[in-house]
Design brief:
single chain, alpha/beta, four-stranded mixed beta sheet, two-stranded parallel sheet, 6 strands
């Protein structure tokens, strides 16, 4: 009975991998708890295919990838090995996601990548790109970032106005206290003292 279960799982495993494996790539199992290896190297890919969620090893080297879409690698939480070299990376604003993602994932993987274009950046290491190299990338900023900027600006302005009002209230309250003290002294002086005679 156990032999039939093992044989059934062995026959179903390639089918399961075939469903998750991108068509131009080859995949292999690293064992159920360890995930999947995906080899998409040397396939002439111009775009990143949909990848299995449990990908642990990913080979994308020697293709025609110019950039990786923002968020495309975020779902690969189990990834441990990534090969991206020998791709014609176009180093403009669209490469910023890959650069930032690789800074968190693997500095050595980032160090191996070189820009293929534009011409002024040809052969420059992707890890050495600066904001000046990429130009103004504001169109890639999510709308939420701009909303947070305006929200923060309004909060700061509100805090400054509140501080000014508190300072004015303190100054006014000091004047009021002084006037009350003077008024109470005048009142005490103007009230005639009565003597008791026994």
């Amino acid at each position: 009975m156990e032999l039939l279960a093992v044989l059934g799982c062995a026959l179903l495993l390639p089918t399961v991998l075939g469903e998750d494996c991108p068509s131009p790539c080859s995949c292999w199992s690293l064992g159920e708890p360890w995930g999947t290896g995906v080899d998409c190297s040397s396939r002439g890919l111009r775009a990143l295919p949909a990848l299995p969620r449990l990908t642990r090893i990913l080979h994308l080297h020697n293709n025609s990838l110019a950039s990786i879409p923002a968020g495309a690698l975020d779902g690969l939480g189990h990834l441990q090995e990534l090969r991206l070299w020998d791709n014609p990376w176009h180093c403009d604003c669209h490469i910023l996601y890959l650069k930032l993602w690789l800074q968190d994932f693997s500095a050595p993987a980032l160090a191996r990548l070189r820009c293929a274009g534009p011409a002024p950046l040809r052969m420059k290491a992707l890890g050495h790109l600066t904001g000046n190299d990429l130009g103004v990338c504001t169109r890639l900023l999510p709308t939420k970032c701009l909303q947070f900027f305006w929200r923060d600006l309004i909060l700061i302005a509100g805090a400054v106005i509140t501080l000014l009002l508190v300072a004015w209230a303190l100054k006014f309250s000091k004047k009021l206290v002084c006037q009350l003290r003077l008024g109470s002294r005048r009142l005490r002086r103007s009230i005639p003292k009565t003597h008791k005679v026994l």
